[in-house]
Specification:
11 helices, elongated, single chain, five-stranded antiparallel sheet, alpha+beta
């Protein structure tokens, strides 16, 4: 049995750890000025983590159904005691929810106030990832196109890609996969081929409705999220640095970038100005984003607030709901609600950044169990593409010295006074568990203390012999 369990652990950990490649970065509000607080950056302290060098990932197969059903199931009393100890830890504050569930059986091993809705921070993105994966599918791409209805007038049309490159696209990238420079070159070739050397440029960004800035966001959040738009260059950043201020009007700025690129190809451009695509327009050039699975993986690995809210709007469009912020949050909750009980869920946005979002820890574990089971292999990327402990994304600097390094796939969440972590782990006995910890009233002093408490809990859950006797 021990040798068989060892093979199971090795097989599943490789799949979990390498599911979608590595996007190493920081969770906004998981790593902010002052490293884990909103305080100014100390002069001797680096604010952002440094990812390890990229490692070529081997080709692996999905191995959820390879888990050993005879692996010892942790005892409910032991897991509950561990969870209760975490909830009572002074580092966690006064409002803590903890849920642990066995993936294969669905048995709840610990539930410490897990039904109470709490502020989840960026673990909200688990709901967005599930809804987008379900509604949009893994292979969908986002088109940015140029159309023409009459000579001398062209329209740049956005379909949700806010990660356009300013010039050439990079086929190996997610952010910057499609390039406005490539689009301009193809457009110029089509125009010049018929003798058109001067155009008026319109931009149609009407795919999404309503304001781009969520009223639940603070003005200071412009460093961490862009107004939601149907197209943008580099997630709407004014500079190519991790936490640059975002443009107030990302779509119009993208159109200006396109106009400059088109002018560089010998076409005189007037505009851009906003207008909708006229009837009978014909496409003359287009570029495509990375596939949706890669976009969703990027979102959870980078904890990108902007793209999370874009995904919510795209779910709304797909489901025939007006793509406002309210339409997006309603669509995401409805999509998730087709799979799990969403009682208590209130979304202010689809990223977890804004004020007012509430999610019970139980809902987070229900999502993780659902996406980890063989009956929903189409949803498996929701778990596989989460950051890996000590290796990837917002977990790159956590669990580095822990024996649980590489055993945990989880989404982080941090806001002032809020620390959360939700994911899956493989126990030393070969049992796959889903867990969620949400603390919404942590003491002052930043994220270090509550994170250390959560990481200790997860490590003990993974490695302590908590199996039931017999």
């Amino acid at each position: 049995m021990a040798r068989r369990a060892g093979r199971v652990i090795a097989s599943f950990v490789v799949v979990l750890a390498l599911g979608a490649g590595g996007y190493a970065a920081a969770d906004v509000y998981d790593v902010v000025p002052g490293r884990y607080t909103l305080d100014p950056v100390p002069p001797t302290q680096a604010p952002f983590p440094t990812a390890p060098g990229a490692v070529e990932a081997p080709t692996v197969e999905v191995a959820v159904d390879h888990l050993d059903p005879d692996a010892p199931l942790p005892a409910v009393d032991a897991v509950t005691a561990l969870a209760s100890s975490l909830a009572a830890d002074a580092r966690m504050g006064t409002s803590v929810g903890v849920v642990v569930t066995d993936v294969l059986t669905g048995q709840v091993l610990a539930d410490v106030d897990g039904a109470r809705p709490r502020t989840p921070a960026s673990t909200t993105k688990l709901l967005t990832a599930l809804a987008a994966t379900s509604a949009l599918g893994a292979e969908r791409t986002l088109t940015t196109e140029v159309v023409q209805a009459e000579p001398g007038t062209i329209v740049l049309v956005g379909h949700g890609d806010m990660m356009l490159a300013a010039d050439a696209g990079n086929p190996d990238a997610v952010n910057g996969h499609a390039g406005l420079g490539d689009l301009a070159r193809d457009t110029a070739a089509a125009l010049l081929a018929v003798g058109t050397t001067q155009v008026t440029l319109h931009v149609d960004d009407t795919l999404f409705a309503g304001p781009g800035w969520n009223p639940a966001w603070h003005d200071s959040h412009i460093q961490y999220v862009a107004p939601t738009a149907a197209l943008a260059v580099n997630v709407g950043k004014t500079r190519d640095v991790p936490y640059a201020r975002r443009f107030d009007d990302p779509a119009l700025e993208a159109a200006k970038t396109f106009a400059a690129a088109l002018s560089a190809q010998g076409v005189t451009v007037s505009g851009p100005v906003r207008a909708t695509v006229p009837a009978g327009a014909t496409r003359i050039a287009a570029v495509e984003s990375a596939p949706m699975r890669e976009i969703i993986a990027y979102t959870v690995q980078e904890s990108d607030n902007t793209i999370a809210d874009v995904l919510g709007r795209l779910v709304a469009v797909e489901r025939g709901v007006t793509a406002t912020f309210t339409g997006a949050t309603d669509a995401v909750v409805a999509e998730v609600g087709t799979f799990v009980d969403v009682t208590g869920v209130v979304l202010a946005d689809c990223s977890g950044l804004g004020d007012g979002t509430l999610i019970p820890a139980r809902v987070l574990t229900d999502i993780l169990v659902l996406a980890s089971t063989p009956g929903h292999t189409d949803l498996l990327p929701v778990v596989l593409d989460l950051p890996v402990s000590g290796w990837q994304g917002t977990l790159v600097e956590r669990f580095v010295e822990s024996p649980a390094r590489g055993l945990v796939h989880a989404k982080t969440g941090s806001l002032p006074g809020v620390t959360s972590l939700a994911g899956t782990l493989l126990t030393a006995q070969g049992r796959l568990l889903a867990f969620a910890v949400v603390a919404e009233a942590t003491p002052g002093g930043g994220q270090d203390a509550p994170r250390a408490a959560i990481d200790d809990f997860v490590t003990q859950l993974a490695l302590q012999p908590l199996a039931a006797a017999g």
